[in-house]
Amino acid sequence: MSQRRPLREVISEYGLAARKSLGQHFLLDPNLLARIARAAGPLAGRNVIEIGPGPGGLTRALLDAGAASVTAVERDSRCVAALAELVAESAGRLRVIEADALVLDAASLVPPPRAIVANLPYNIATPLLVGWLRSLAAFESLTLMFQHEVAERIVAVPGSAAYGRLSVLAQWTAEAAIVLRLPARAFTPAPKVASAVVRLVPRRDQPGADLFAAMERLTAAAFGQRRKMLRAALKPLGEVEALLGEAGIDSDRRAEALSVAEFDRLARLMHARLPPLGPRRPGSKPLPQRQVRA
In the prediction, which pLDDT does 263 show? Predict the structure, then answer.
């Protein structure tokens, strides 16, 4: 493999000043990038999806870690152009798609076994995660970088200030843990907050689309006014006292005190009682994409 150019040189040549509108903060330290790739677990034989590769620092680390293939989804045409030489040297292992990840069905991009590894753009990180949780069985794992506050919400325990809707959805469908913490100064430009990498491994039993939709409705209502008691917070769902009674949950409790298992009981009862909304997931229609080839 030929010597790769330093990332700062690539950034300079292609004018990759980070854009706030795209939530861009570039991580350039090869040692930290290699640690993220290692945190994703063994990548040999895995088809990896990366969202927001930017100048390609993590992309390089994923290729070096032995991923069977890397499919990088990038919205910024400047970064797409900058990745062309990495595509050329990858011997067919790297594909770059210019598209908006929010409207893309990630699982359709590559065959199994699939994993997502990404330094997510801050401004779309949470909706991306929730979209992937709806079809988590399609992936072996997700290894994702978030703002530190968002990472803490994903792994938060009941009763803590960070515990909320995202905690329940993530821990209901996956084993979630923070595997790496990074200070703001590790990035270019430095964001105002620290970051953390969360690894999510799907649980064996995954909810169907309608049950997941019920859980989304339930947690949206429960945490929408988190200081209210459940009997008030869940009132818009109808028959709230009967629902809580059947689940064996005191209506005077608040959402932040309920365990994930208790939310699971409530969601399953809701699913049985209420008409399903059906899944809300991206990529329902094929969208035009531009692919970079060697």
Answer: 98
